[in-house]
Amino acid sequence: MRPRLRDLGIEIGALPTGRHNAITDVAGVLVGHATVVRDEPTVARTGVTVVVPRSGDSWTEAVFGGWHNFSGNGEMTGIPWIEETGLLDSPIAITTTHQVGLVRDALVKLAVEQGGVDAFHLPVVAETWDGWLSDADSFPLTEEDVRTAFASAVDGPVTEGAVGGGTGMICHEFKGGIGTSSRVVESKSGIHTVGVLVQANYGRRDDLRLDGWPLGRLIDKDEVPSAWDEPPNGGSIIVIAATDAPLIPIQCQRLAKRVTVGLGRVGGYGHDSSGDIFLAFSTGNRLAPGGDPWKVDVMPMSDMDGLFHAVADATEESIINALCAAETMTGQKGRTAHAFPVERVRELIGAR
Fold first, then answer.
1. Residue numbers of the domain that contains 53
2. How many domains in the chain?
3. Model confidence pLDDT, tens digit, residues 108-154
4. What is the number of other CB atoms lying within 10 angstroms of the CB of residue 234?
5. CA 56, CA 170: separation in Å to the nearest integer?
6. Among all residues, which ones are annotated catalytic?
7. CB count, 10 Å around CB of 305?
8. Could you tell me which of 27, 62, 118, 246 has the fewest CB atoms within 10 Å of its CB?
9. Gap between the Cα atoms of 63 and 68, Å rounded
């Protein structure tokens, strides 16, 4: 078990975390993974991660949601419906670029089988590209992998690093993948939790910062080689933010925009070839299916500043947690993405 960021003695921001320091600290949110690692018949280092916004009502009870496109060289399905209505009424899946269609179709089948579709379904599936380590053109994922990820979705601690959709991902030239974090916010509206989950597959070594410190420049590539022969000018990151604060869609969109602050702190610039897409949702209202009018609570706009701080801090920590958790991985053609050197980082922090 590799240490998380806080095990190294670093805390991002002043807000406390939730119990598990994970997106699942927002009550009802579940996370599951399916990981595919094999060398035959082709090299696969891939998978799928599923986030369920509200346990027990995956298909029939929507939550309010909003999104932000920081850099659009990527894909997230289901966005036109969210823009039209502000409603998220499906689980969210994150996977590899070339298999968004398969994952989407598998979620539709699950919805039909579980009685959640009257006429049609528009699930949310996002992606980053794992084709450096994995033979993405061999399409290694199957419908059964999606079913496994969905069936395994639970609350509590979340497995991070090279797992699920993050299996083959690279971040700031180290091994990357899935990371998560949470914050608890107190305002005039009450006490609320904000949780974040990232699939991090972006960034150059020299741009990497940790709590404002230019850490990437201090870890020489002779000490820890880069994953890339020549680092690409871009990469991608998907960020999912959840909160139990009672937000309406425009407020969810405002929250999604503030993810950019956390990404920028770590060293994400939204380069031309990046797919940096963020989705935020709120479980703070019960939007029962049917024709009865909804009675909705709304947090005052002026109370949202704490949530903005929370989502920025949790995004920053989620990315570093993804780096901390991921172990060295060798994939196709002998390519290797080396683990973030947590013990070396601990030494550098001690000397700071």
1. 5-341
2. 1
3. 999 999 877 667 789 999 999 999 999 999 999 999 999 999 999 99
4. 20
5. 34
6. 236, 274, 276
7. 12
8. 118
9. 17
